[in-house]
Amino acid sequence: MSGFGITPGFTSSGGASGTVLGPYNRIEYWCSPSADSSTTHNTGGWPDAWTRFYDGVYTWTKPSNINTSLPLKVWVYGPGGNSGTYSSSGNSYGGGAGGMAYKEIAIASLGATETVTVGQAHATTRNSRGTNSSFGSHCSATPGNDGQNSSNPSGNPMATGESTNPQASINSGYAQGGIGVGGDINRRGGQGGQGSNDPGSGYGGGGGGAPGFHGHADGGNGGRGTSYSGGSGGSIHFNGSYPHTTYCPPGGAGTAGVGNGPYDGGERRTSGGSGGAGLFGSGGVGGSGRWYDNNDNMKPNGTNGRSGEGGAIWDPNMLFLGGGGGGGSPSIRGSSSVWTMNGGCGGPGAGGGAVSAYGSSNDTRGSIGGHGGVLGGAGGSGQYQTGGTAGLAGGAGGTGYDGQTRQQMGTQGGGSGLIVIQYAVE
């Protein structure tokens, strides 16, 4: 099977439009898992009781009329890592993002067919990593670590060109990003943010962001949390943010700037931070709630964090992600009532917003950190809440306590791998 083809002139949802001029006229991508290890995504059914994703394994067939004067361009991304907490066990770190390999391949070096493998995060782990993505034998990318995995990436951890592994000494090496292998450019995924697993004042780190298509830099790290509040997700360009103080969940990193958090550590705790700006649109506004002086008369109120604006260009001659970060969201608690809000999701290339618990109790447990956009990390959460799920190749958001990583439930999981190719036919 071939990937989904797009012709030149794609118009993004965020307003960026127009034909991108250049010599290439075909683009294909693969990002889907398989339903069962013995089948492909197309032939395998998804049973009601499915419990995990398997690697998506596909076959690309070289067109008979492919233009031999131009190389095929390929980007390979490994999957992201899961949250570092499952139920009451773990360290609450966010997951590391997958690595990226970019390569230009002479047409004569391609086989008549090439096997395309889309790696996946593990179904429920907190201290492991998923599987590699690859395009034939030409190049591959390793997965990001789950939050509680401190081992170096498999293979050569310095494949990205550094003399040392820069993530091995940060937070004892937990939640490292994956790396590209065999590419003309190999980049490292962002590292998951630091968390603390505590039923009274826990916090989950934000997920790491994957490297951008341009290949200029590694992905952004996830933000560290602090008591009761998660850190926000990293983007392709920027790190996720750290809460200014307790109860101040920050917005996710955008493709054009970092997210921020309010200074609201007092009694009311009614606002979240805005997401970072996007190259094609603004960051999402933080969630906010109304405060009642008489808490017994508290009524349902408040808004979730808004998702980041901005779109993307997927074109045979350009790949460009321009999303803003998702807004962060607080929880409000009165003497006899509570109101929980969810974090905003990141736009393309951007991170999700964080969420916070109101205090040491477990009655604001309904909040969910914002999901990451494609290649973006997810937002973290306070204790008894749920970290966000990552976009393709991004790292999951951590929870401060009692969250669960479940692919079948869509919670706290690392993003699937991604493979994109560009070429020309005559």
Describe the structure.
- The structure is a single chain.
- This protein has 426 residues and is mostly beta strands.
- Strands 1-16-3-6-11 form a 5-stranded antiparallel beta sheet, with no helix packed on it.
- It is globular.
- The N terminus is likely disordered.
Mean pLDDT: 88
Order of helices and strands: EEEEEEEEEEEEEEEE
Strand order of the largest sheet: 1-16-3-6-11
Count of DSSP strands: 16
Describe the oligomeric state of these chains in a short phrase.
single chain
The main pleated sheet reads as: 5 strands, antiparallel
Roughly how many Å is the radius of gyration?
21 Å
Primary descriptors:
426 residues; 5-stranded antiparallel sheet; disordered N terminus
In short:
The chain is mainly beta and 426 residues long. Helix content is 0%, strand content 15%. The chain is built from no helices and 16 strands.
Outline the secondary-structure elements.
Elements: E1 26-30, E2 56-61, E3 72-77, E4 85-86, E5 89-90, E6 100-105, E7 113-118, E8 133-135, E9 139-141, E10 180-181, E11 185-187, E12 312-315, E13 318-321, E14 331-333, E15 338-340, E16 418-423
Antiparallel strand pairs: 1-16, 2-7, 3-6, 3-16, 4-5, 6-11, 7-8, 8-9, 9-10, 12-13, 14-15
